[in-house]
Amino acid sequence: MDIVFVRHGVPDFTLADERQMTQLEKDYAPLCREHLPVLQEKLNHPVFNDAEVIISSPYTRALQTAEILNRHRGLPLFVEHDLREWRADKEGGYITLNERDRRWLEYRELLKAGIPMTDNRYEHVDELKARAELVLDRYRQYRKVVVVSHFNVFEALQGFQDVGLSCGEFRYINF
């Protein structure tokens, strides 16, 4: 199965940060309106023309990106809970952006070095990869699918990436 993996568009966390929302509440943040024209242009690429289905993370930033991609295509669109973002806090409570960033850097350093993760406050790469692969296995009957999700899901599937995947960018995966 060929997968075109799309990282969601640029989210606008302004309100979430002002109100110190929990991680769960932040997941409802919409895309930044000023970035929408660039995203629409990226998603108009012909690589998407022969896709059979779109699978999206349930987070607003991914769903809104999937909707923009599908606006003129009319493909079946499935929302999959297990394509969600890496969890910086497994308990789902509020953690500061500084603490989230610290955990993310630690997670990526361990991933790059191939060192097992032991901090149980955040999700480990093996957990993230396993849940994403279970989702993708259910779509093997398709030749080409589009997955709209998050960089850390891409990285869990493809291994550590020295160069990130910017918001709205896409890559091919053969699964």
TrEMBL record:
GO terms for molecular function: phosphatase activity. Pfam families: His_Phos_1 (PF00300). InterPro entries: His_Pase_superF_clade-1, His_PPase_superfam, PGM_Phosphatase. One of its GO terms (cellular component) is cytoplasm. This is Phosphoglycerate mutase. It comes from Vibrio owensii CAIM 1854 = LMG 25443. The lineage of its organism: Bacteria, Pseudomonadati, Pseudomonadota, Gammaproteobacteria, Vibrionales.
